């Protein structure tokens, strides 16, 4: 269990990385946490400290894209849920310290990078660690916390799914079990893989990206989806890079969603012709990702996407590897 003690009466900063939902072949079932290799920050942060009454400030590059009223912010809902749970556990309201919280919104909204999940995970992980330090025991286990994260994510996206919150919280590459006692499973990874992640600068809502999908999947597509996911998982455990990469094709969402992403086919063609093992849509888009097994190819594709896929000055591209740590906290 993620546990860091002696945090009471301190400023706690929680960080949660960006993530790739679906990872092409695993619609709603696979997720990967990202960490730029240059050390830059790709994820949201939340500061927490004791206060006389609850307050929330929002700062950061994309703060102006969120509702101005703190009561409408998902971080406020995270705090309210936590206090409710603490009271249900028998803690007197007078014994539950109010918190001042600051959300640093570093991830763009509707980017396909798990932006809402990052805020939710940073807030809930920070709250769990803060109150663990205050009461001597974390209110939630990791699995219980994931259930809450999925519930709050569903309030924003319209449906409960864990393929962003799970990797964001646990780190690495995760497979959703959605069993009550085991929401997500961490999978083996290829440590030599680089994940180029490019956000074009436009916004695609998760709800709109789901609406464009067909209501039913054909039997051949369902069989191919199941085969790919099973073979990919097996290849990870056997460390068969070639077979794993060959399975990374999206037969469920990409054929429909790519119409929402200008220059997608052109970008895929360039990446695959220049050493990418796989190329796909990150979550609902518009962010795309390319997987490479050497740094030079990753850097070349990253530069091409920067020059050709990005459409405005809010876009960006990073060469990443998987963030094995997931959500973290530090105190000051």
UniProtKB/TrEMBL annotation:
Pfam families documented for this protein: GHMP_kinases_C, GHMP_kinases_N
Cell location: Cytoplasm
GHMP kinase N-terminal domain: residues covered: 73-172
Enzyme class: transferase
UniProt keyword ATP-binding present: yes
Keyword ATP-binding included in the entry's annotation: yes
Pathway annotation: Amino-acid biosynthesis; L-threonine biosynthesis; L-threonine from L-aspartate: step 4/5
One function term, GO molecular function aspect: homoserine kinase activity
Cited InterPro entries: GHMP_kinase_C_dom, GHMP_kinase_C_sf, GHMP_kinase_N_dom, GHMP_knse_ATP-bd_CS, Homoserine_kinase, Ribosomal_Su5_D2-typ_SF, Ribsml_uS5_D2-typ_fold_subgr
Binding site for ATP: 108-118
Keywords assigned by UniProt, alphabetized: Amino-acid biosynthesis, ATP-binding, Cytoplasm, Kinase, Nucleotide-binding, Threonine biosynthesis, Transferase
Principal localisation: cytoplasm
Substrates-to-products reaction catalysed: L-homoserine + ATP = O-phospho-L-homoserine + ADP + H(+)
This enzyme's EC code(s): 2.7.1.39
Its job: Catalyzes the ATP-dependent phosphorylation of L-homoserine to L-homoserine phosphate.
Family statement: Belongs to the GHMP kinase family. Homoserine kinase subfamily.
Full protein name: Homoserine kinase
